[in-house]
Amino acid sequence: MSSANKFGLRRSDLTSDQKRTIRQQAGFGCVVCGNAIGDYEHIAPEFSQAAEHDVGKMTFLCVQCHGKVTRGQFSKESVLTFKENPTPLKEGFSFEAFDVGSTSPKIHFGPMSAVNCKWAIRVNQRPVFWINEPEGVGGPFRLNAEMRNVTGKVIFSIIDNEWRIRTENWDAEVIGPRISIRNGPRQIALVLRTAPPTDLFIEHMDMSVEGHRLLCDGKNFTVTTASGYTVQAQNLKFDGCQVAVEIADEAIAFGSGGGSVSFSGTTGTRASPRIIDPKIQRNVRCPCGSGRRYKHCCGAF
Ligand SMILES: [Zn+2]
Ligand SMILES: [Zn+2]
Fold this sequence. Notes:
Order of helices and strands: HEEHHHEEEEEEEEEEEEEEEEEEEE
Bound molecules: zinc ion
Radius of gyration: 23 Å
Distance between the termini: 51 Å
């Protein structure tokens, strides 16, 4: 796909390890302006004159800053200065904006989704993912989030549609509409995908908030509370609820404050959240409300 320069070097020859090193050194954004969307660029010599991909002579630049360099509006010396002292590392984050329209965006978290809900996820009254109304008529709805990793550290936030990747992360990568954050090699903390202007997909999430563990993938949304029980939900659709998922110390509520909760699962998936708690007696009625005994319902095997 990419063409070779006079030395036979291709941009696609840059290895994933080299890319990650460049991202980590840059703080996951353009070293000049901090924008999270960009590319791996040769500074000096420039790509056409480079015999090899030397990470020490490369950096991460956004399209706009890279364009200024190629048009001669910004010097290579200045880029090298920013490479030594990248803007994302100074600010603590790289950033970009989500394109959100004037209809309430739909948040998908794993197999579940929430639309027209003020709080998609709230933990002990602390908002994790929420939506503010437009500031003016016809203005965009405003996404907000504070996403953490398994140790409870904030790794990614959204402030009125501006998203920020914290530079303390081990790695973060933006490819097309997908943002991925890792805690270490093969340790995925968060994967988000956007489908503007209406949908945001949390494809993978593994975080800890106030001692509660929230895990989501394509199949399940799983919460293990600080007190030690687990609730697993699939295919619930929330519309117009004040809070889609409310997690408190001793209870988890799905779809509170009005609105509707519907189920759109396929065979093999459950309409009601599955409750797994070692303290529940196996012969009592299941707390999920199915009417069956726990051992034949949520507590089966
Ligand atoms: Zn830039
Ligand atoms: Zn049950």
